[in-house]
Amino acid sequence: MKWDQRVKQLRRDGKYHLVIQQLDEIMATSSGNHLVLGEIGLCYKRIYNYATALYYYNQSLEIESTAQILNRKGLLLAKMGCFDEAINNFNWALEIEPINKAIYNNLGIALDETGRLNEAIIAFTNAIGIDNQFKEAHNNLGVSLDKKGNWEESISQYQKALTIDNGFYPAYANMGIVFRKLGDVNKARECYDMALSIDPENEDVRHNLLQINFIAV
Which range marks the domain in which residue 57 is found? Predict the structure, then answer.
């Protein structure tokens, strides 16, 4: 088995320590293989060694710029709170793969985090334009619309996500937040109850439900 395939398999099996233990051997034969370097970077990310992960992503990109590694680097940078750099990497990735729904969704999340809501809405809309069954993008679009105060449009997006997957609890939880803002406590409670029926351990939803129960009293 080639090293890029072996490293990928070890990473998928969660055996990150084996990759690191064999790093010298891997690099001795595959230091110029951008696929191997990208997989090593992802292994380091999985063990929360972000600086080393970033190093290997950059090494991979120096050999060949691929949308996959740019997307992974963008996700890592976002995890590190470097949203502007993440946005640059997602945009670069989209220049290579302009119809990649996942990258548009990731771009939208980073834009939303920096308050660039109009751009985030465009990114999520592009993701949905590629795949109108992309429930996460519908949900994320709902979040950005909520932040802009477009509550009816926000609810519509959450409902679309639930039409795709009626067990998608984030849409119930987020729709509950919007109904609470609209003053509809009963619908908000229904949404929170549905979210908790799917994910009973969700503390954020429990907290929100407790708050509206106090309001109702």
Answer: 1-64
- From 46, 64, 82, give the residue that closes a domain: 64
Of 11, 82, 9, the closest CA to residue 47 belongs to 11
Domain count, the chain: 2
Q: Residues in the chain with pLDDT < 50?
A: 1, 217
Spatial contact of 37 and 58, defined as CB atoms under 8 Å apart: no
* Residue 165: half-sphere exposure toward Cβ, Cα within 13 Å: 15
For 42, the 3-state DSSP assignment is helix
Give CA–CA dist 37/72, Å, rounded. Answer: 12
CB 101 within 8 A of CB 91: no
Question: Could you read off the pLDDT of 52-85 as tens digits, one per residue?
Answer: 999 999 999 999 999 999 999 999 999 999 999 9
Over residues 200-210, the pLDDT tens digits come to: 888 888 888 88
